[in-house]
């Protein structure tokens, strides 16, 4: 099974990813792309996308990138996330990549864009993924 | 209006917090406590709570703690989160506190517990909140 | 050999820790305490201790805390550090502790105080240590 | 005064940067490059460069990148750093860049390479810089 197909199956098997509506656009050696359509229930009280939605999308993007190189049985050890701008677009796009991988640990980076409609960078992340 | 009441109103005004079902248990000088009942749609594919749920709860716990000292108009600059154990309980409990606050920035810490039914620490976070 | 003695020997065997003048005050199940006398060469251009000195001390405090529970052959996977206030005192004091430890990974927290002469918290850290 | 010249003067005015021997190779809109020759006193007990040296270099690289866009009066709010591989080369090279900048805050990324003699990526960082 190719990475793209595997990624789609894992994402489909995650109730929370389905609940939010995450889609895997691509997965390969070069990294992962996830998309998330913004629904009215994703906002916070000031009319922009809630940071928790962005954090959840970053978590998935980073973990999937780690799974590309470490295999599907991974867990997210930790990640750090900077919020760069409020997200107001109709869709969020996450791109992540593996920066370095050993046998048990991978270091990953991720970016989240808000399509307004041109993609604007709204969050930047860096994390560590471990093979279970 | 007291901090507790204000916190409840902000939480109620956040569609995403309502969508997940977050509850403010307490808010005061000593910090914030949020609770989140785990629903079937919150799991990932291995049968434990999805990291994205925990990240979203941490985001809210840290931001609310910052809002206690900086006022309600705050944004989360960044946070970092370690996942300590899989969360399997029926409810998540988040506790956060302000470690240091200036006029414009506050540094906050947060812990998330899974009630199994005794509370087990499942995530640890540290972040920076800014007055808008 | 007790943890205190072991910690002192590792610290003595680290040329960089000796170069800066780090001292291990205590090491035990409850965590680690390191001290660093501030010398004129530790400042930055605005007359306070350089962030790099604080980062180096945090790195050591976190790694030593991890070594308490994982054994002496550890490496620092990552850490995050907030600078809370400028440090102007004559000595820095670092306190770190293990928050959670598994077989291969430990999550640690650290605080750095500047003695002015009362200890003021100047930095807060959170990191991940791995058994080699 | 151009950014390159300004950066060199700030670096020269920092006793700790001089103590370690940091050099500014370039500073401009595209980011900052710093170099640090590895001296015997920079090692830890296992014969590789101490994490504290790498953390100090990362701190400077990130802060200088923030200073490019926010002006020379900046402070490092926080940063996060992953150690990717042991550094064994004769010189460390740090490259940092601004990912996003507002009026008061900039988000920066940095990489540290060990010249062995080909540059190998040994650390990855992400941080937040504020105008004082």
UniProtKB/TrEMBL annotation, chains A, B, C, D:
Coiled coil spans: none
Reactions mediated catalytically: a fatty acyl-CoA + H2O = a fatty acid + CoA + H(+); a medium-chain fatty acyl-CoA + H2O = a medium-chain fatty acid + CoA + H(+); a long-chain fatty acyl-CoA + H2O = a long-chain fatty acid + CoA + H(+)
CDD domains: PaaI_thioesterase (cd03443)
Keywords: Hydrolase
SUPFAM superfamilies assigned to the protein according to its UniProt record, in alphabetical order: Thioesterase/thiol ester dehydrase-isomerase
Domain Thioesterase, chain residue ranges per copy: 47-117
Protein name: Medium/long-chain acyl-CoA thioesterase YigI
Organism lineage: Bacteria, Thermotogati, Deinococcota, Deinococci, Thermales
């Amino acid at each position: 099974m190719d990475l793209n197909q595997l990624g789609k199956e894992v994402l489909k098997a995650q109730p929370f990813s389905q609940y939010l509506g995450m889609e895997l656009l691509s997965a390969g050696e070069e990294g992962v792309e996830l998309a998330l359509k913004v629904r009215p229930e994703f906002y916070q009280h000031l009319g922009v996308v809630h940071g928790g939605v962005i954090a959840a999308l970053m978590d998935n993007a980073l973990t999937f990138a780690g799974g590309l190189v470490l295999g599907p049985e991974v867990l997210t050890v930790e990640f750090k996330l900077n919020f760069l701008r409020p997200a107001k677009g109709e869709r969020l796009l996450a791109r992540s990549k593996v920066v370095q991988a050993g046998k048990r640990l991978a270091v990953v980076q991720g970016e989240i864009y808000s399509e307004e409609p041109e993609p604007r960078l709204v969050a930047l992340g860096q994390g560590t993924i471990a093979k279970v």
